[in-house]
Write a structure and sequence with these properties.
The chain has 602 residues and is an alpha/beta fold. Helix content is 41%, strand content 14%. β2, α2 and β3 form a beta-alpha-beta unit.
């Protein structure tokens, strides 16, 4: 630290008071410097550089980033970044209450302080300042809105924020980019976040790990007793583990210890059922299930035993397990250990309606809500695995944009600490992927974020002049889904009553209008055409039904199918679509459509 810099940062003896506002820049000039402490973390230094970069993009003014060795007191014309630099304005006691991701923004006299908990709080504080005070938005990794201002003035500022969710994750391909994830405060294991961008909450093995612990292909022949007994027989295929077997517990515990040693950067390790049924019903497992009133009983006792065994050696690590399908209902007696996370899964539910609705609206949702409430009463580390796309037809419209916020709020109101929003992780180009990712990021960070606001700002920033007709398309689809007894699970089909011929025709007309609005803007037109793919997908499905079923198989319908498929295929290839559903490749689906051409004489 150069001594003269300290002199430049120190004001005359005034007592700090709340500022009526700070003028940071004018006409490309500024008296301000950004200050970090020598002890700043890589994420805090990156936060300072990001702040300097975006302030220059906004105003044209270049703010230097300077380092100090002591927190400047009564600093003038300084933006203090990080808890060590901001210690004269934001106390260590305040920082200690923020956890790992909370932050304080505070203006005093001619100084702005931005500091938060470690590792991500200061970084999130900087991005929140740029977003909330200056209007920056990072819609996707390649599309942002950075306003231009001749004068940057911020009003009086004294804000403390701590997120309600410790784990905020989704897995759309566009959400993994490290800069986008950091700027939008997604911290899940699927991201590419590094230390400079605050790191992430990393899982070791992520889910469905029983075969990773004991692979039946390797062990079943010699030790069938390690695996599920179903209807009196040990099962080798699509099996689970026999969780009452003490040797299985020993092997699993040793395996988890090895995972933790090999992956020191990971903090959560999943010990969880395989992705099918066939849970063990041997005498001992069945007895525990009966005692606990749910098949979760043997699972949670097993996971607790592992958590107890590794707790002292790995005090910062957590064991994760699922409450999923047959293990969804909570147990009567056993309680998760403090170092156990239970991930409750809502795979059976309807996502056209909020999960908290009455049974008269949707019994599946009401049943899940009851399980959630009971789980929240017995554990302080409850996560939710939520599903936000149609996994059977991922290109198809999925009318859940207005259930995302009610569901997230229902979760946090029942003390959920982490949410994984499973989406179309398997392909680019799926239905409104960028918009849904945006809504999720905004709402996971701040469950009070208004969905209409999120939709409107995204559409304007991403689709430009095409925003209005695309907005009417969203209202059309969601309006019908919300107004009637239409249910949408993750396996909904193009034959859903939502997709009447009239609705699809009106949707197609709206996209015709959207394309005309941006016909001379190549990049935006491409985005509009990708957004149209779900409508075309349903049109193709309906055309296929008419051509191969008892309805009108006329030459006109055949030509229409040709035109629709050619349009879809061209845009899908340009966008890089590789799957139309979780388990169906694009080229397989396309070959099926082309086979109709061949059969019908193309």
């Amino acid at each position: 630290m150069i001594p003269s810099l300290l002199i430049a940062l120190v004001a005359a003896q005034a007592t700090p008071q709340a500022s009526a506002g700070l003028q940071l820049t004018e006409a490309g000039r500024t008296p301000f410097a950004i200050v970090v402490h020598r002890r700043a973390t890589p994420a805090e230094r990156h936060a300072a550089l990001e702040l300097a970069s975006f302030l220059q993009q906004i105003s044209g003014a270049a703010l230097p980033v300077r380092e100090v060795t002591e927190p400047p007191k009564n600093a003038e014309h300084a933006i203090l970044v990080g808890p060590d630099a901001a210690g004269g304005i934001i106390s260590p006691a305040e920082i200690a209450r923020l956890g790992q991701e909370g932050y304080v923004l505070r203006a005093r006299a001619s100084t702005l302080a931005i500091a938060g908990g470690r590792p991500r709080g200061t970084l999130y504080g900087v991005y929140s300042f740029l977003e909330d005070s200056l209007g920056c938005r990072w819609f996707t990794p390649t599309v942002s809105r950075i306003p231009k201002k001749d004068r940057v003035t911020i009003p009086a500022l004294d804000r403390t924020f701590t997120p309600r969710l410790e784990y905020r994750a989704t897995d759309y391909p566009g959400s993994r980019d490290a800069d986008w994830a950091a700027r939008n405060k997604i911290n899940g294991t699927q991201t590419h976040l590094d230390v400079r961008r605050g790191s992430k909450i990393a899982y070791g093995p992520f889910v469905h790990t029983f075969n990773s612990i004991l692979d039946p292909k390797e062990h079943f022949r010699r030790h069938p007793e390690y695996f599920s007994e179903v209807k009196g027989q040990r099962v080798a295929g699509r099996t689970q583990l026999c969780l009452s077997n003490r040797e299985v517990l020993r092997i699993a515990t040793d395996t988890v210890r090895r995972w933790m040693r090999e992956q020191p950067e990971s903090t959560i390790f999943s010990v969880s059922q395989n992705d099918w049924y066939n849970y063990c019903t041997c005498k001992d497992c069945a007895r525990i299930t009966a005692e606990e009133g749910s098949p979760i009983g043997p699972y949670l006792r097993f996971v607790n035993a592992i958590a107890d065994a590794v707790r002292d050696e790995f005090p910062g690590k957590t064991i994760d397990t699922l409450a999923y399908q047959f293990t969804r209902s909570p147990p009567r007696k056993v309680r998760p250990r403090p170092n156990v996370v239970v991930r409750l899964c809502d795979i059976e539910c309807c996502f056209a309606h909020p999960l908290g609705v009455a049974a008269e609206v949707d019994k599946r949702n009401a049943d899940f809500a009851g399980d959630l409430r009971r789980w929240s009463e017995i554990t302080d580390r409850l996560y939710v695995w939520d599903y936000v796309v149609d996994f059977a037809h991922s290109m198809m419209p999925f009318p859940n944009l207005y259930t995302l916020k009610p569901n997230i709020n229902f979760f946090v109101d029942h003390h959920v600490k982490g949410i994984y929003e499973e989406a179309a992780y398997f392909s680019k180009g799926t239905e409104l992927a960028e918009l849904r990712t945006w809504i999720l990021a905004k709402t996971l960070w701040d469950p009070g974020y208004d969905t209409d606001r999120a939709i409107d700002e995204f559409l304007e920033g991403y689709y430009g002049q095409a925003a209005a007709p695309i907005r009417r398309y969203i209202d059309l689809v969601h309006g019908k889904a919300r107004s009637g007894a239409i249910h949408f699970t993750i396996g909904a089909k193009p034959s859903s009553p939502l997709f009447s011929d009239d609705l699809i025709a009106r949707a197609a007309a709206l996209f015709d209008e959207a394309e005309k609005q941006v016909a001379d803007q190549t990049a935006v037109l491409d985005r509009v055409r990708v957004a149209r793919l779900p409508v075309v997908y349903v049109q193709i499905a309906k055309c296929m039904e008419t051509l191969t079923g008892p309805r009108d198989g006329s030459a006109a319908n055949f030509r229409r199918l040709q035109a629709l498929f050619d349009m879809f295929d061209r845009v899908a290839h340009e966008e890089g679509v590789t799957q139309v559903s979780e388990h169906r490749r694009y080229d397989t689906w396309a070959a099926h459509v082309k086979a109709v051409f061949t059969v019908l004489g193309r």
